[in-house]
Structure formats: structure tokens, C-alpha cells
């Protein structure tokens, strides 16, 4: 979606797809370093499809050197994925197969297709590989991470099985997420590579949308508990007030009976005096 809707806002995943084409073009010699840096800077500054489309208009998409003029990078929004893991293991072409950070950083996040093997390298820099919203080209993917005096962070969604096989020298790989069984049909992520004076972290997080949904659920549960407590307190208060009213009614009845009893005794004494007086007369 470019020419027909150039004003639509582009996402981080859209910018990453364009950046990957630029990296491939640099590796193939289609762009020199100055052109690459200028276009990459324009890519990350782009806000709409209309700004992204011209950046790769003269570049082929794909690795075949002899390919004729290939189409531009498609900015068409993909349809919503099917529910469950089956809809995310697509077997499609990966949108990115490698990443490099030299005294800088990189990110692979948002909606992107993870290849069967993703190679990444960080030297005096860092990287983030976020799989929470990604599709997978295969049921098992290998993330090969090499960190030299740098670091990388791998973020996986709940339900994914993680296996860590990396080697660390004066550095290390995070094994905390290993041993957690995956959901049926979920992909398996193998984290491998080498870390020297650096580290590769692995953590499990829900997506921002899921976190917001859980937050909303907790808020709703809190409101329901608060309403239940108010209802309970109201019921207890009403019961206490009823008991107090009954006690007051009983007390008033007792006072009324006591007054009536005193009145009857007083009347009897008066009648007795009257009889005695009539007898004396």
C-alpha cells in the first residue's frame, strides 16, 4: 500500500523491512556506504508509506544478483493472522536473516517473519530480537548470537520452548527460560552462539496488547471485588441496623409493659383505698 494510500502511518516492522533491503543492497554492492547511510537514515525518519516507498524503488527485492527490476518493498498490511500457533508458523520468506551492531545497536521487533536461522553480531554494541509478535518460517528457529564486549536480548512469548546452547567466555548466556515446556504446536527457539566479555539474555514476556488486556482484567477484577466488599459491608451494616432497630423495639415494648404494669398496680391501690374509705363511712 504505497501509491494508493501514501498518507498511512508506517510501523516499526515496515521500516525494518526497508532497512533489510538496504542492507542486502549494500552487501551486493548496489549501494555504497554513503548512499546506504543516507537511505537508512531516511528510513528510520520516515513516518508514512509515502516517505518509505521511494527509498527502495530502484532496488530489487531478493538475493538473486541477476534479477530484473524487482518490485518495490510491499507496504500492504497483511491480513490478521489465524488464531493459535498454526497461524504464526507460515513457512513464508523471512523478512530479515541477519543483524549487525558495531558500536551501535539493532532491533528486530514487531510484526516480522523469523527465518530458520537468524545470525546476529554485536561488537561494543547491543541488539534486541523480539519474537512476541513475529511469524515463524519454520517450527524450529535458530538464533545465532555473537556478542563481543556487547550484549543481546532475546524476548520470546509465553508458550514457546527455549533451548540455549551458547558458549560464554568472561560472559554468558541466560538459561533461566530453559526447561519450560512449550504449548502444543508452538515453535521451538534455539539460542546459540558465542559471548566474550558480553552476554545474551533470554526472557519471556507477553505482548503489549496482552499486557494491557491482563491489566484491564485485573482492574475489572479489582472493581468487582470492591463492589462485592461494598455490597457485603452494606448488607452487614443493614443487618446491624435491623438488629439495633429490633433491640430498640424490644426495649420500647418492655418500657411500655412496665408502665402499664405500674398503672395497673396504681389503679388497684386506688380502688383499695376507695373501698376502705367507703367501709369506714
TrEMBL record:
Top-rank taxon, per record: Bacteria
Secretion signal, residue range per the UniProt entry: none
Residue span(s) of domain DUF1707: 8-60
Region (Disordered): 216-281
Coiled-coil features, chain-numbered ranges: none
Residues passing through the membrane, by range: none
Listed name of the protein: DUF1707 domain-containing protein
Organism: Streptomyces salinarius
Organism lineage: Bacteria, Bacillati, Actinomycetota, Actinomycetes, Kitasatosporales
